[in-house]
Design a protein that fits this description.
The protein is α/β, with parallel strands linked by helices and about 425 residues long. About 45% of the residues lie in helices and about 15% in strands. The structure holds one RNA strand of 83 nucleotides.
Length: about 425
RNA sequence: GGAGGGGUGCCAGAGCGGUUAAUCGGGGCAGACUGUAAAUCUGCUGCCUUCGGGCUACGUAGGUUCGAAUCCUACUCCCUCCA
């Protein structure tokens, strides 16, 4: 039986840790926390790494605390940001916290015997503290010199930084102190950009209550092409099924680059070292099978959306990338394209000679303009029911519809749009 | 408060008063090749078009001119330096 520290190490998610972290994690059951930013109503795939870190903690018998930044969210963390951030309203943040709470409960067991996960909102203690108390009790323990030396501050000296954001690290240090006192929480984890904030907390605990605390950070994720992880052409990939459908979520992982598939399996799944090694062998032997990507996508989709949604996503994948669309029944279409953007059309639109495809495609939003639609057709990038259309002035007629009810429009390889024909 | 520089398409950044819907690059989109990968190559990338054209664009508003992103004036925003 290993320990948490070794586990994180072989998974490649251990970027740095403070002195003594390994010993304390090996010899004791500890309480540790990670903060989550409530600037959106849903977490996205970028939050998966910190979430998994908490999951590993709980698996090894430690107690994980997820701290929602309801208080600090009102200020905005400058770490890793090049510009001052807009402030969100209190109501908005409260709403976001509700959404995030729900998502976290899919990963962490809040009922576990012995080491149930804990969820707190730092507004609970930050909202009520007075400016004078804060300056006296906390501010006194930090020199401005110390704060200026932090990377998060230094990198902003050129662009400028408000006094508000400058104080962020003190608030986070105060969080750590509070959790230390309330829960005996001795470990704070986070992305490597959090290092400065974390060590501030450790220092504060040492100075104020002579306590020993630890910090551990994970590497910052980037795709091999240097892109920010978790963004696709169509935007951020969210954990909320209403913001990113399970099908798109599944597809996001399925499209993982070969180079990243194995690291991602280590980061985001609970597969064992041996299991992942065998997958790595398979990937090296026959990469075209994309076994690693399939396992990765299945594992993560199941964890986030559940078995049922995973099955549906796989079915949709098989239908869209395997069979001919015209073999599908109207019912299949509805299932497969449940998550696809769709537009309703009245059948009265369809006159004798049909409707100009370029117009249709523009009106349903698949293409931004008719000119762009015509260009796309010329380039061979537009398909109706998976058949390429080559005529710029192609007119669509009702006999081509599936069961007289649907047209499946496709742009490029993966972008679908469903047209639903409504009877008179 | 004083002095100077600048605001161009998604971004970055060119642009002798006319052939500039605006160079080059990045990004994006599509095609080919593939494995729904990577790399590579090709094309497209303001709007409308009955394919002849038409329209709208270079911070905002005026002006000079046959003609302006390019010249002038005012306004506005940004940046740098001095105080």
């Amino acid at each position: 039986m290993g320990n948490l520290y070794n586990e994180l190490q072989w998974r490649g998610v251990l970027h740095a840790a403070t002195e003594g972290t390994q010993e304390v994690l090996t010899n004791k059951k500890v309480v540790g926390y990670i903060g989550f930013d409530p600037s959106a109503a849903s977490l996205h795939v970028g939050s998966l790494l910190p979430i998994m870190t908490l999951v590993h903690m709980q698996r090894y018998g430690h107690t994980p605390i997820a701290v929602l930044g309801g208080g600090t969210g009102l200020i905005g963390d400058p770490s890793g940001k090049t510009q001052e951030r807009p402030l969100l309203g209190k109501e908005k943040i409260e709403e976001n916290i509700q959404g995030i709470r729900k998502q976290l409960s899919k990963f962490l067991d809040f009922e576990a015997k012995g080491n149930p996960a804990i969820l707190v909102n730092n507004a609970d203690w930050l909202a009520s503290i007075s400016m004078l108390d804060f300056l006296r009790d906390i501010g006194k323990h930090f020199t401005v010199n110390y704060m200026l030396a932090k990377e998060s501050v230094e990198s902003r000296m050129e662009a400028g930084m408000s006094f508000t954001e400058f104080n962020y690290m003190l608030l986070q240090a105060y969080d750590f102190l509070t959790l230390y006192k309330r829960y005996r929480c001795v470990l704070q984890m986070g992305g490597s950009d959090q290092w400065g904030n974390i060590t501030s907390g450790i220092d504060l605990i040492r100075r104020l209550v002579k306590g020993k605390a630890y910090g551990l950070v994970t590497p910052l994720l980037q795709t091999s092409s240097g892109q920010k992880f978790g963004k696709t052409g169509s935007g951020t990939v969210w954990l909320d099924p209403n913001l990113s459908s399970p099908y798109h979520f599944y597809q996001f992982w399925l499209n993982t680059d070969d180079k990243e598939a194995i690291p991602y399996l280590k980061y985001f799944t609970l597969l064992s070292e041996a299991e992942i090694e065998s997958v790595a062998d398979s990937l090296a032997m026959s990469p075209e099978k994309r076994e690693a990507q399939k396992i990765l996508a299945s594992e993560i989709t199941r964890m986030v959306h559940g078995e049922e949604e995973l099955v549906k996503a796989k079915q949709a994948t098989a239908a869209l990338f395997g069979r001919e669309i015209k073999d599908l029944s109207a019912k299949d279409i509805l299932d497969v394209f449940a998550d696809t953007p769709s537009t309703d059309l009245s059948s009265s639109l369809f006159t004798e000679e049909g409707v100009l495809l370029s117009t249709l495609v523009q009106e349903c939003g698949l293409m931004p303009s008719k000119g762009a639609a015509r260009r796309m057709i010329k380039e061979g990038g537009l398909y109706v029911n998976n058949r390429r259309v080559t005529d710029e002035y192609y007119k669509l007629s009702l006999d081509e519809s599936i069961d007289g009810q649907f047209f499946v429009l496709r742009k490029g390889a993966k972008k679908y749009h469903l047209l639903r024909v409504l009877p008179e």
